[in-house]
Design goal:
ATP-dependent DNA ligase, MtLigD_Pol-like, about 290 residues, six-stranded antiparallel sheet, six-stranded mixed sheet, alpha+beta, 6 helices, about 25% helix
Length: about 290
């Protein structure tokens, strides 16, 4: 029998709590739900009012993985959805995770949370910019650190503040709060900085996507600023053998070469120590105009 729990007045069926999702650590679905419950105060501001895309991995990272934007069958009526018109489906809607019951309902599906750089009430008008630093072997996190520090300095020269998190996989994400700007303009600016980075660090940076160009370099992926693209949300678990988390980090941790591999069990202590390092992304007072 599927247990029912009550979350903030909403009744939720939570299934298969003993099922192992991350085999390398034996992490169960119940432990994943507990993780999202205790990090909700930090995570929810980064999801709130943003249409969510899910990468689902209900049988673990070794099972079927599928990306979905449409509300899944059985979505409760109290889970908010928002219109997100697509060229092939003008009536499309997506889930918006605004509160703890919605978060726990979604987490019970076993998902990665991905969001666009814009909110549901202003589609295609970005209030943040992202650079996804993706290393091509043998390059790794050390090379990503160098590129992230260059980007921070370059953005500062344009009056923009930058914040960082791990991708939860191989690389880093550099994020920037900006005044609402059409996604096309943000994409053009971000691409320009990626091109500039390749000119400044030619042995280290590539701004184009073809994998043949990327061995030993860091691909500065600017494309996730396009209105149709999404990025892994802060604090989301990733579909990996180990329960890795896309984790906010300090610039000191990046500059000093500290370990940047964080998992589910590391996050509560980091929140106690640092609070939400990406809180400025949700503070309109921190937003600055693109030059």
């Amino acid at each position: 029998m599927t247990p029912i729990t009550e979350v903030a007045g909403r009744r939720l069926p939570l299934s298969n709590l003993d099922k192992v999702i991350h085999p390398a650590t034996g992490t169960t679905k119940g432990e994943i739900l507990h993780y999202y419950a205790i990090t909700a105060d930090a995570l929810l501001p980064h999801l709130r009012n943003r249409p969510v895309s899910f990468l689902r991995y209900p049988d673990g990272p070794g099972g079927q993985l599928f990306f979905t934007k449409n509300p899944p069958p059985g979505t409760p009526s109290w889970v908010r959805t928002a219109p997100v018109p697509h060229s092939d489906d003008p009536g499309a809607r997506q889930i918006v995770v605004d509160d703890l019951p919605s978060l726990m309902w979604a987490a019970n599906l076993v998902v990665e949370f991905h969001t666009p750089q814009w909110t549901a009430d202003a589609p295609g008008v970005a209030d943040r910019m992202v650079f996804d630093l993706d290393p091509g072997a043998p390059a790794g996190i050390a090379e990503c650190r160098t590129v992230a520090l260059w980007l921070r300095e370059r953005l500062a020269a344009d009056g923009l503040g930058a914040y960082a998190k791990t991708s939860g996989s191989k690389g880093l994400h550099v994020l920037v709060p900006i005044e609402p700007t059409p996604s096309g303009e943000v994409s053009a600016y971000a691409r320009g900085l990626a091109v500039e980075g390749e000119a400044a660090l030619p042995r280290l940076v590539v701004h184009r996507m073809p994998r043949a160009l990327r061995p030993g370099k860091v691909f500065v992926d600017h494309s996730q600023n396009a209105a149709a693209k999404t990025t892994a949300a802060p604090y989301t678990l990733r579909a990996r053998a180990r329960p890795t988390v896309s984790t906010p980090v300090t610039w000191e941790e990046i500059a000093e070469g500290r370990d940047l591999a964080f998992e589910l069990g590391d996050i509560a202590a980091r929140l106690d120590r640092h609070g939400d390092l990406l809180a400025p992304l949700t503070d309109p007072a921190r937003a600055r105009p693109l030059p």
